[in-house]
């Protein structure tokens, strides 16, 4: 929306108001001719806006601290994290359940 | 949820597990450059240096060093520009449109195809700068308040639309490609042995931690970017075609141009992807990831778009006659039988006839034939642009100004420059970044790998298709 508005403002203001130009016998403000630029600007703003949002919500940025449970999770392992302090079950019980249901490794880590 | 039919041939062969995928693809990134790579890289750099010298001279001396004359004012520069932009269409098509269509075979080739897109668009942009003759004034194409008076760019002009279209396409493709790279960069970061590479890959991996939430957002952003890129892909070549179609030159002034250019772009782009992937596949021993299935699927796209292009050529010819416009008809008869007849028939043979060979399953699944036809298609698509541009211009309304165009060594040298640039960038990419999207391949492996242990895949082995003969295990 912002991109679309920016593009429309830019095209109509520059071509129609600031320095009206008649090109090819067309009206100074000829909206059909502004569609390509408006479309491209809309897509550009949306894409960058979405990517920006994605990076911010995930806390991603150059040299951000990954804060990972296990570095092998980016290779071939899956990690399930359970917060011990907010869990009613005892630590040993949780470890036992996990091991019984086929966990390859159970670690207790401080974060 | 997406369900894969058990009768579908597997996409990844050789019984790869998740760890195998990481291992196979990271090997290139982590190891020392191979001898083949060093040789190829040296050649590319030499070509690039030669091209840069030619380019320098073009700018130093002026565009007079090209073979242009007052009748043919646009020739190889725009031919090469349109050709490269066309090639740059396949990558985003594969990653965006095929993602929306849920075509899983794209996972093995999307990374390299997107990289190819970005480099091809860079090459195309270099021709825009070149044909300006005074590249230091390139900013005039931007809507900046002019220091010499308040003149703005003309937003009615398709050339200005092009500036917006190409720069948007380039930036969105780059961002899309980079977002796809982040999980893989994180994999390399976590495997890195040396501090330096951990730091570098860590910087670019942006602190990716692969948590479920991050992954779910990643899936969404991929879908959204794919949804945005799909109309973008179609719009870029449409706008490029309007550079011609909005003019009044016979042979350019046709409404069929936008769809016909888009089909042609996808056609040449897939041919270039085939060329690059077939080489990468052999050099990096990725036959299990880029299988004959992938090659066949791409060949089907080539045949489809090639046929669309063929129909467009014939329609154009028919309309030129049917319109009853003398100049229009002459432009087309001149294309086919005039002094540039050889270019026209080269285009017809390469683009219309050669992809039809892929109706044969045997040729479609033959690596040698695929490579050969892809090269032919690329040559044909270059001739298509040459035919459109030079043959439409060289005989204009005034027979006294009819002329021929012949390229000088600087026309050729500047074209060579773009090849040097393209291959240098592609080789750097294939050495320092994973050429296959590991994360996405891992996502399809469960439903599409040949013989993943039952424990992991959750599907009994007997239910899967028995090993088809064309996907024979190399071991």
UniProtKB/TrEMBL annotation, chain B:
The keyword Transmembrane helix applies. InterPro entries: NrfD-like. The chain crosses the membrane at residues 37-60, 80-101, 113-139, 159-181, 220-240, 260-280, 301-322, 342-359, 371-392, 412-429. GO terms for cellular component: plasma membrane. It is found in: Cell membrane. Its main location: membrane. It is a multi-pass membrane protein. Pfam families: NrfD. Keywords: Cell membrane, Membrane, Transmembrane, Transmembrane helix. The keyword Transmembrane helix applies. Belongs to the NrfD family. This is Molybdopterin-containing oxidoreductase family membrane subunit.
């Amino acid at each position: 929306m912002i991109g679309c508005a920016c593009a429309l403002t830019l095209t109509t203001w520059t071509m129609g108001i600031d320095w009206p130009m008649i090109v090819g016998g067309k009206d100074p403000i000829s909206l059909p001719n502004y569609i390509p630029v408006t479309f491209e600007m809309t897509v550009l703003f949306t894409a960058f806006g979405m990517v920006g949002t994605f990076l911010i919500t995930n806390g991603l940025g150059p040299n951000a601290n990954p804060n990972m449970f296990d570095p092998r999770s980016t290779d071939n392992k899956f990690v399930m994290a359970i917060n011990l302090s907010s869990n009613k079950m005892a630590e040993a019980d949780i470890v036992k359940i996990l091991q019984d249901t086929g966990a390859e490794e159970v670690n207790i880590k401080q974060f | 949820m997406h369900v894969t039919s058990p009768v579908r041939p597997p996409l990844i062969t050789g019984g790869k597990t998740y760890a195998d995928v990481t291992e196979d693809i990271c090997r290139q990134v982590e190891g020392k450059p191979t001898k083949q790579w060093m040789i190829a890289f040296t050649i590319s750099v030499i070509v690039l240096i030669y091209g840069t010298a030619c380019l320098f001279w073009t700018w130093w001396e002026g565009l007079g060093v090209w073979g242009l004359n007052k009748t043919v004012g646009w020739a190889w520069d725009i031919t090469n520009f349109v050709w490269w932009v066309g090639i740059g269409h396949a990558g985003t098509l594969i990653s965006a449109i095929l993602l929306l269509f849920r075509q899983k075979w794209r996972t093995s080739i999307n990374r390299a195809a997107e990289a190819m897109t970005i480099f091809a668009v860079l090459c195309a942009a270099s021709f825009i700068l070149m044909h300006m003759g005074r590249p230091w004034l390139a900013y005039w194409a931007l809507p900046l308040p002019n220091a010499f008076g308040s003149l703005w760019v003309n937003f009615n002009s398709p050339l200005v639309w092009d500036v917006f279209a190409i720069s948007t396409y380039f930036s969105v493709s780059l961002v899309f490609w980079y977002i796809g790279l982040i999980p893989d960069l994180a994999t390399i970061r976590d495997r890195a042995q040396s501090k330096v590479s951990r730091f570098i890959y860590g910087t670019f991996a942006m602190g990716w931690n692969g948590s479920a939430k991050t992954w779910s957002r990643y899936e969404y952003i991929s879908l959204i970017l794919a949804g945005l890129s799909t109309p973008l892909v179609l719009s870029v070549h449409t706008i490029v075609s309007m550079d011609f179609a909005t003019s009044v030159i016979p042979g350019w002034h046709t409404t069929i141009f936008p769809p016909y250019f888009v089909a042609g772009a996808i056609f040449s782009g897939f041919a270039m992807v085939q060329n690059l992937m077939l080489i990468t596949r052999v050099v990096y021993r990725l036959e299990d990831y880029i299988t004959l299935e992938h090659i066949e699927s791409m060949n089907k796209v080539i045949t489809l778009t090639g046929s669309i292009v063929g129909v467009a050529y014939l329609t154009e010819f028919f309309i030129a006659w049917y319109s009853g416009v003398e100049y229009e008809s002459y432009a087309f008869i001149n294309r086919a039988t005039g002094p540039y007849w050889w270019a026209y028939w080269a285009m017809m043979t390469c683009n219309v006839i050669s992809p039809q060979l892929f109706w044969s399953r045997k040729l479609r699944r033959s690596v040698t034939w695929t490579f050969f036809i892809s090269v032919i298609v690329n040559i044909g698509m270059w001739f298509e642009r040459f035919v459109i541009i030079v043959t439409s211009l060289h005989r204009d309304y005034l027979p006294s100004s009819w002329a021929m165009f012949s390229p000088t060594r600087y026309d050729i040298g500047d074209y060579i420059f773009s090849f040097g640039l393209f291959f240098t960038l592609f080789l750097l990419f294939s050495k320092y970044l994973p050429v296959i999207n590991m994360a996405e391949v891992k996502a399809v492996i469960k439903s599409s790998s040949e013989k993943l242990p039952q424990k992991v895949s959750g599907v009994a082995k007997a239910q899967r298709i028995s090993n088809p003969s064309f996907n024979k295990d190399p071991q």
